[in-house]
Automatic annotation (TrEMBL):
PANTHER family given in the database record: BETA-GLUCOSIDASE (PTHR42715), BETA-GLUCOSIDASE G-RELATED (PTHR42715:SF12)
Species for this entry: Symbiodinium pilosum
Subcellular location per the Swiss-Prot or TrEMBL entry: Secreted
UniProt GO BP: glucan catabolic process
Family as reported in the entry's similarity comment: Belongs to the glycosyl hydrolase 3 family.
An example Gene Ontology CC term for this record: extracellular region
Keyword Hydrolase in record: yes
Name of the protein described by the UniProt record: Probable beta-glucosidase G
Chief localization: secreted
Top-level taxon in the UniProt lineage: Eukaryota
Keywords: Glycosidase, Hydrolase, Secreted, Signal
GO MF terms, alphabetically ordered: beta-glucosidase activity
Catalysed transformations (reactions): Hydrolysis of terminal, non-reducing beta-D-glucosyl residues with release of beta-D-glucose
Role according to the record: Beta-glucosidases are one of a number of cellulolytic enzymes involved in the degradation of cellulosic biomass. Catalyzes the last step releasing glucose from the inhibitory cellobiose.
Amino acid sequence: LVANMTLSEKLSMLHGSPDGRTECMDSPGCAYVGNIAPVERLRIPPVNMNDGPQGYRAPAALAGTSTEWGQGMGKEFYDKGSNLQLGEDPYLGYRLVQPVVRGIQSQKVVANAKHFIQNNQETNRVGVSAEVDERTRFEMYYPPFEGAVQAGVGSMMCSYNKVNGDWSCENPFTLRGDLKQTLNYQGYVMSDWGATHSMSIAAGLDVEQPGAFWMNAELIQEALDAGTVKESQVDDSVRRILQAMFQVGVMDEPLSAWDWSKRLRNVTTAASVASARRLSAKGTVLLRNEGNILPLTRGKRVAVIGLADAKAIYHAGGSGSVQPSSVSTPLQGFRDAVGDSGTVEFNCGRDVNAAVELAKQSDYAVIFVGTLSREDFDRSSLSLDVGVDWTGQNEAVSAIAAAAGEKTVVVVTTPGAVLLPWSRQVAAIITNFMPGQQAGNAVADILFGNVNPSGKLPVTFPNRDNETEFSPAQYPGIPDPKAPAYAFYTEKLQIGYRFYETHRLQFQTGFPFGHGLSYTSFAYSNLEIRDDFRGGKTVAFVVKNTGGRPGAEVAQLYLEFPASAGEPFQLKGFAKTKLLDAGEDCSLALNLRPRDLSIWDTDKHSWRQIGGVFGVSVGSSSRDIRLHEQFSTNIFV
């Protein structure tokens, strides 16, 4: 197909097209944030783009990543005439991204992994230079993108920032070298909106968005004439775009399938709403349950306090933000769940004394608290009192806990890690992260026991702000006349729970990575480590439901490397059991690949397997280890 294209047709695909954008830019119905123009002579359809890291109101990927989530998002995008979706620790990200990519692309929508690479702050994201060494890039930051590559992701987006002094979207070391050559990425790279600073085909950029300031036909033709760009490089960029379109089935559709009027369709279905409810509950994490107060008993007087009415939080802000036309508020979810068997009374929480009195008079006090984040801004604190207009949340929870802590349940809605200074003063805590449009029904399903929680924390909830002691040089970076800042990644591999394990920090009010309780209990036994035929190891063990109700457990495998490797304690496997009845057990086997026993060698610029004694820890979280064993490898450093 590329061979049959004229040069003009090829160049038209290397930048954004205003068609389909400017005509509705001021209209709330304008759904496409960008396009690549069609080549009608060859029946090549347009690429119509939508932001969607949160989807059309499904739970945040942080909590509910699965093939179902990806398929649901992809179907809604396709039904609205969009065929490209712009979406976002190392091993966890590597595993979680793959079913999402496959799910999205199964619906004739090209998934987009972003932002490549080191877009790890918003404060100075436009122009900050991320100063990060090669080993840290490959071990900490590339694995989620590598997982996307292995799942066949069709497109990636380069970021606004610089990497080691070069703009991300014109960085030949990270784009053409690391991404396209070392990681063997076969899809195309497009810029974030306005992140192109030069005609960067030779560096590895394939598409400029949203327009054609640098990657226009005139400048590319000048570069071709001057010999700084080869036509084979242009062909490679076009091939990558077309390959992604063929891969997901876009090219099988007639041009009429991409009629722009589709963007105004309401594509919400009963099935997608049910999926949003199911996934929101599936992604909820039970952090605390003293005295087994949960699940709640129906037929009681329940005080619902806080962000549970129209002020409830469903999603974060930024380019992927969508205002749902229909939502299930927590207050309505509770009223529907309780029905005529009990009473539900509401207090917004601003009048702390009134909220305390209501809590004291009720059988249960369920407090809804939360905070927000959005594109362009970093949270100035992990406190609940930053990010929303109710700045007295911690005061209210503490006061209610002091008066009625034994019957107080707190629901925390948050975009990520958050501080919970009152956590040991209340009976129960759940977090539903960004729960989506079915938040109310889903949280009622959890709190009343229709669904037994099985979620685990994908991040550490710290005891205090900056507990890992980042310096200003690390974040937000040191100002420099040539750029907003230089941010130095001197923490290297010591990110999140790895730092907590290395320094043995204890949790007084926070919660560890991987933590998540159930309404039942689980025992681990029979740990066995054996060689596998690929040169790695198989770690087998048994998980048994020792409680009184059905439930599922996410078992986690952590690896300790030989000291010579300089590697921290880290997650290297996890698996979720089936729903186990009381007394039932199941056998699990997790594979450690040779790659999992390797480090990035900066001399050879490749992975190198390590020899020595490894420690294997299996358990329910990074701090709840149930089984431990060692094995040795005979490979020498």
